[in-house]
Amino acid sequence: MLFQVGGQGSRPTFFEMAAAQQLPSSLRAALTYSLGVLALRRPLLHKVLDYEDEFFALLTLVLETHSLRNTDACFSESLYGLRRRAVNMKLKNKVNSEAGERIHQSSLEKHQKVLSVAFLVVLPYFKSKLYTIYNKEREAALQATLWGHVGDRLNENDYTGGDDHSSASSNASDVEGSARATMAKRIKKIIGVCYPWIHAGNEGLAFAYQLLYLLDATGFYSPGLHALGVHVCRATGQELMDTSSRISRIRSRERERLRGPPWLKTLQGTLLSCSYAVLDYAQTGLIAAVFFFKMMEWWYQSAEERMSAPTVYPPPPPPPPPKKTICPLCSQKRANPSVISVSGFVFCYTCVFKYVSQYKRCPITLMPATVDHIRRLFQDV
């Protein structure tokens, strides 16, 4: 556990829940950016980026399964010292008190853990896929409005010809392929039309739950937690100790189940120890690695920008006056001609001295100048 946000009671604050909910998306964005930078030098990583949704879903599946199995909390919740508890609604005894409901919290059951993994891994995966399809359909619709249906024009120019026997043999496969393509296109169009409404409804419902949670009108932060019948609570010190002892018992039982020759048991035990170490430090390691990478990337990028920054030259001066003997300030014939060394323009001595003393710049190029930059000319051409 890296963070423990302050607060009283077992009920987490709104900010704790919001931080725990936003952590997976922030972590995914950081990992995607890191892989994108590393792929510039390792082209093999482009294959991982091509299957970004699947890769992150697999990583999330491993982390969430391990976290729910050991701590009764998801990956981000365990990072903030939170735990999930099942909510059982029971009727009060009418003799002792009035009729009502009593909320009794207990540890998660197996089906609740499985459903929690589905809500944490499967649903975000499908949301990401639907969002990708919606973006493609929106881009295709925009392109169609600007350039027309490119696919239809290409289909009209398809190659025709060949012998009748080859066209007859491929006719069935073409019909089947076209039917599948038509069905897939229709499904994508339906997704493109329905996705904004589904997304708006989902976000609106989530906002309503968050507002009610903020106002202390409900104990469920999101619709998913309400559907699962799960409350998120702060973990006490005793619960943390019980979790550590439970993890130790589970791992000792797994080691006792190893079968085979001694060398095989040793190998399996080593692999188990390595997997336990990787999973135990996955939370701290992932966040620390992303933070370190971002810091190094910022450091080297700022250094490269300083080294490769182009030299800024002053803007070119305006063209000189049509008559070379006219002072640009008083528009009269120059008296006691003097030049400003930073720009090279010639003025009357009294005119340029007054101007530079007051404005500290060249009156033509606006370059910084002082009276020390004024030089008398003893031969005015």
UniProtKB/TrEMBL annotation:
Signal peptide: none annotated. It is found in: Peroxisome membrane. CDD domains: mRING_PEX12 (cd16451). The keyword Isomerase does not apply. Keywords: Membrane, Metal-binding, Peroxisome, Protein transport, Transmembrane, Transmembrane helix, Transport, Ubl conjugation pathway, Zinc, Zinc-finger. Pathway: Protein modification; protein ubiquitination. Transmembrane segments: none annotated. GO terms for cellular component: peroxisomal importomer complex; peroxisomal membrane. It is a multi-pass membrane protein. Residues 20-302 form the Pex N-terminal domain. One of its GO terms (molecular function) is ubiquitin-protein transferase activity. The keyword Transferase does not apply. One of its GO terms (biological process) is protein monoubiquitination. Belongs to the pex2/pex10/pex12 family. Component of a retrotranslocation channel required for peroxisome organization by mediating export of the PEX5 receptor from peroxisomes to the cytosol, thereby promoting PEX5 recycling. The retrotranslocation channel is composed of PEX2, PEX10 and PEX12; each subunit contributing transmembrane segments that coassemble into an open channel that specifically allows the passage of PEX5 through the peroxisomal membrane. PEX12 also regulates PEX5 recycling by activating the E3 ubiquitin-protein ligase activity of PEX10. This is Peroxisome biogenesis protein 12. It comes from Daucus carota subsp. sativus (Carrot). The lineage of its organism: Eukaryota, Viridiplantae, Streptophyta, Embryophyta, Tracheophyta.
